[in-house]
Fold this protein.
Amino acid sequence: MSDVVLDLLHQRFGLADFRPSQRDVIDAILDARDTLCVMPTGAGKSLCYQLPAVLREKLTVVVSPLISLMADQHRLMRDRAIESRILNSSMSPDQQRHVLDEILAGYSGLLYVSPERCAMPGFKELLKRVGVGMLAIDEAHCISQWGHDFRPEYAQLGDFRRGIGNPTTAALTATATDDVRADIIRLLHLHEPAIFITGFDRPNLTYASLRMSGDNQRDSALQKLLHDTPGSVIVYASTRRAVDRVHAMLADAMPDRAVLRYHAGMDARDRTEQQHRFMHDPSAVAVATSAFGMGINKPDVRLVVHFNLPGTIEQYYQEAGRAGRDGLPARCVLLYRPADRATQDFFIQQLGRDNPNASEKQIAQRKQIATDKLDLLVSYAAGHRCRRRMILDYFGDETDIELCACDVCQRGDFIEADLDDNTALVIRKILSGIARLRGRFGAGAVADLLSGSEAERTLQQGWNQLPTYGILAEHSRKTIRLWIDRIMEAGLARQIDPDGKFMPVVDLSAVGVEVMRGARRPPAVLADLLHDIKADRKSSRDKKSSKSSASHDEPPLDPTASDRFEKLRAARAELARSKQLPAYVIAHDRTLRSIARDDPHDIQDLERVHGMGPMKVKLYGRAFLAALGHAPPPVTSHETDDAVQDA
């Protein structure tokens, strides 16, 4: 049998030898074993079912998610004189009827169909009557809600398989984590399948993530990348509008180069024409949404750029993997802008609309899965670890990496050291500010709160009465805003768009809550937080009163006030211990200095001290007055209940 297999490989497929694991997968299928095959893009998954289909000479049904992918595979088979048919909605009724008649007459080659076709009862009955020798399911990760491209129609393929007599089944994909692989086996009812995972490492690909501050910088970076890459390029954008804008910008900037576009909003004929031009132009640039790619088998793509943030590491790996399929060096570059997360959060909020039968619990679970995956993708984009290693770790691939050329390894800027206490304190202060706004406002509002802004909105919302108001007043609002981005990148907080209006708000992640409470140290990736961004001290012209100045601008305390200040610090420390809060949440030093200087004798005087206000006075005022030696009136039970509620 081995000579027959090799002869077929040489004569019909024109290949000199098998790629790693291809032969093992083919042998398992020829032995009539159900098979799960996970191979990276460009590793030759299609051959694993095409060659057995030719040898067995029985009807092989191939489920494929895209019409363009079916058409490409069909043309390739016909070019090799291998029997192949397609059956999809792009064909006329007469064309579809002709293919169905051929099947009834005993056709025994490859038949490419969509998952929607498999859901048609008449089609299932037809296949059951004629008999199916093998069922191949391409892009099998689409069957799992844990995957990056879940499609409800794929979830019905297990019933379809049973309905046609449980033929030998091969499920194939380039991206599948442990959870996705388990779903594929369970939902397709694979019987003791042979499982082949050839690894996820693509040593010829160089990964990079470049942080962008805005579209102008991103446009310039993209143009430079294309200028440095004369070969074929794919640029992925997250929305149709973004595709149209980037396409227009590049077409104007590079009039001598073919710049094409592709998204689902275009006419089908236009998409086909654009794809054809891309396949036959060695220097073409395709600007596209994720709809472009599954059917693309162009080996010489030298660069894949993600202009916007994708949704998952699986999606990024699959799309970036369309570079360098010929085994030659290629680049995969992510132009990362933290604000792009809002678009992906919007997409997550739309989950469940494609399945009206899903329960609220199921939809909530899907949204949580998607959010968790997005968090990991953001960690990849913003991280300081080897990018190849992060991808392999995600898929559970323990392959050793040598001589990596990713941007992190080339810079040699691994961050292994732990954070110093001052950096950890700043991080916890920022997290406390986020928590105080309770996920109702954006990052700019958090920066206003922490910097002690006296803007109209700050006063109208009463943020100047919150314990965290101004606790980072010695730093500029701009610096604090950048720090918030870093904290979100590290996964301690996240932007969400709950109303789907592209008005993202900031809230803490579960890990962020633990870090804020001191139950966990901040991640080492934030060790350089205070060093890589120069903290701009506020100038005196930004101060509207001496009371809002940083402590180093205030006149020194006289000896009597200094003594009061130390007593207030001791009282604050006791409050922090009893309430299990950081001391700065009770009151920061600047506020205590103001109290020590003013020496208030009652609640009303204390409320007038900058940084206190009614809420803090209610919670901590009596302790501070007692520390100053001014006995406050007895506490009523009503006040006690209110204070406990507010705390």
Q: What stands out?
A: The chain has a mean pLDDT of 83.
